[in-house]
Write a structure and sequence with these properties.
By secondary structure, the protein is mainly beta. It has a domain of 86 residues. The protein is built from 3 helices and 12 strands. The strands form 2 sheets. The protein has a 5-stranded mixed barrel. Strands 9-10 form a two-stranded antiparallel sheet. It is globular and about 45 Å long. The N and C termini lie close together (6 Å).
Length: 188
């Protein structure tokens, strides 16, 4: 699996808090996390990944780890994710899922807790700042929650992230899409 190129999301809060800024041309080690949305079991045993848009993919992969809170899905890369509600799924099953692929910023904590987290070495080819307008504001359990229109967000190509500056403006949502090439996985 050489020349894997992926578009990976990362939020400025996590850059500022744990992983550091990104710059085009840099090599960086990090693990990935997925947020599965639509999940079904499949009978195929082929591992695939197809870009839908920005950092959203459709994947088929094998469940290689399963506990009440987390899964590891192997679709050519082993990626930790939050466990969505599965029906009749067992370790070793193949599933098809729509996922959001993001930088995992809690790798050390998850490893300390015994979760199987795989780090990879990535070349940062391009960076896009994604700017989303407010979709709605709701009060949930006394807290103000702002929802953003990420599907229709504007993309602006930049040379490096600047999380501290981008977090100051609360009128819109900001995150980044990293266009990366995997540099340290052997051919199968």
């Amino acid at each position: 699996m050489n020349n894997i190129q992926l578009q990976i999301g990362v939020h400025p809060w996590f850059i500022e808090g744990s992983i550091g800024e990104f710059k085009v041309g840099n090599l960086k080690y990090f693990s990935l996390e997925i947020k599965p949305k639509v999940v079904t079991t499949v009978s195929t045993i082929a591992k695939t990944i197809h870009l839908l848009n920005q950092n959203r993919y459709n994947v088929i992969g094998e469940l290689t780890y399963l506990d009440p809170g987390y899964i590891v899905l192997d679709f050519g890369l082993s990626v930790l994710g939050y466990r969505p509600p599965f029906v009749n799924v067992q370790l070793g099953n193949f599933i098809q899922a729509d996922i959001y692929l993001n930088v995992n910023t809690r790798t050390d904590v998850l490893k300390k807790n015994g979760l199987p987290v795989e780090e990879y070495k990535w070349n940062i080819n391009r960076i896009f700042k994604r700017i989303a307008s407010q979709k709605s504001i709701e009060i949930i359990k006394g807290m103000r929650r702002v929802f953003y229109d990420w599907e229709n967000a504007q993309l602006k190509e930049i040379e490096e992230t600047n999380a501290i500056v981008d977090l100051r403006n609360r009128d819109y949502g900001v995150d980044y899409i990293l266009h990366c090439t995997l540099t340290n996985i052997e051919s199968e």
